[in-house]
Amino acid sequence: MGICKYCSKESPVISQKIGYCVDCIRDHLGLIKSRVMKIHLELRAAHGLPPEPPHTPGGIECDYCINQCEIGEGETGYCGFRTNRGGQLENPLGGLLDWYYDPLPTNCVASWVCPGGSRAGYPDYSNTDGPEIGSKNIAVFYRSCTFDCLFCQNWHFKESTGSKVTPQQLADHVDDRTNCICYFGGDPASQITHAISASKQAREKKEMLRICWETNGSVSRPYLRKMLDLSLESGGCIKFDLKAYHEELNLALCGISNKNTLENFAYLAEFVDKRPNPPLLIASTPLIPGYMDDKEIKAIAAFIASLNPNIPYSVLGFYPCYYLDDLPSTSKQHAKHAREIAEGEGLTNVHIGNWNMLGRENY
Ligand code: SF4
Ligand code: SF4
């Protein structure tokens, strides 16, 4: 139980660190925006990241994502990865990442509907009529991000640099037992040319190799199109984290608009019927207590259903971390209720992810 600093109403769950309830963020962000965005500015400064996407006159434009940074000499883009040194964007193809082999079936957001963890895609995109036990995924964690989520579960990447791995070096790790590559992070949008190049080289090494993505959907459309082509032809999938539906809430929680995310999702939905098995597009939403309420889930589910009700949707457990460490873990009741709401909006394939880490206590 807490009090919203704007409407002074008691809310069953509210982050005192944010200070505002979800209704006030959705309905009155214009009035409280400077105070909410100050949270992002301070967090980003602590990690040496630019406070906002730079738009320096005469700077070099980066077209990778929604932020469309114009980066002046010596400056870094919002993601912290692309830097203007001597009039050139540094490391256009050198990735900053961690990678590891992940035995299949993995705990991927989509493994309940993909060839790695289910019967999907057999025999065209998998040689196993069931989970691909004994095979592996290459998980590629990019250490940079185009959003600034207050609930980031992988925020530690902001505190160290990782290693530089070229696309060819990454592709060289594909062996006979590697069936898929999944790019996540951070977000692959900020290093998208690296991922595309690595994928093409990896696909030359092995024919049955799926290319998958886990993203906030901020990538620019021309690169999304390349991601789409790679996943469509390889039997891979694109997993969009729809963190909020209302732009105000996305801005407050993630620092950046979700306009591009929703438009990109709608664009990809047009291709879903081109390759229904395994599913091309999967949506997920982290259930942040107090903020991912009925109204938000209903709006997200209605949006997905309006595009194609058969798109798989996974509601995910949140646990207290990073800035939002003053909220409880998602309760089982919250997750079950969210699933009911999503099904009520017409979605035919709704899943609760991370069941084991959901909390017992309701709020
Ligand atoms: S990837 Fe996005 S955030 Fe990073 S420099 Fe380019 S436009 Fe800016
Ligand atoms: S990388 Fe793709 S195919 Fe492999 S387990 Fe994850 S979602 Fe499934």
Describe the structure.
- There is one protein chain.
- It is built from eight helices and 15 strands.
- The longest helix is centred in the N-terminal third of the chain and has 25 residues, at 22-46.
- The protein has helices at 22-46, 167-171, 192-205, 221-234, 247-254, 259-269, 294-307, 332-344, and strands spanning 2-3, 10-11, 60-61, 70-71, 84-85, 88-89, 95-103, 136-142, 163-165, 178-185, 210-215, 238-241, 281-287, 313-317, 350-352.
- With 363 residues, it is α/β, with parallel strands linked by helices.
- It folds into three domains: 2-46, no CATH class; 52-90, no CATH class; 95-357, Aldolase class I (TIM Barrel, Alpha-Beta Barrel), CATH 3.20.20.70.
- It is globular, with a radius of gyration of 20 Å.
- Helices cover 29% and strands 18% of the residues.
- The strands form four sheets. A nine-stranded mixed beta sheet has the order 9-7-8-10-11-12-13-14-15. A two-stranded antiparallel ribbon has the order 1-2. Strands 3-4 form a two-stranded antiparallel sheet.
- Helix 4 (221-234) links the parallel strand 11 and strand 12 (238-241).
- The structure holds iron/sulfur cluster (2 copies).
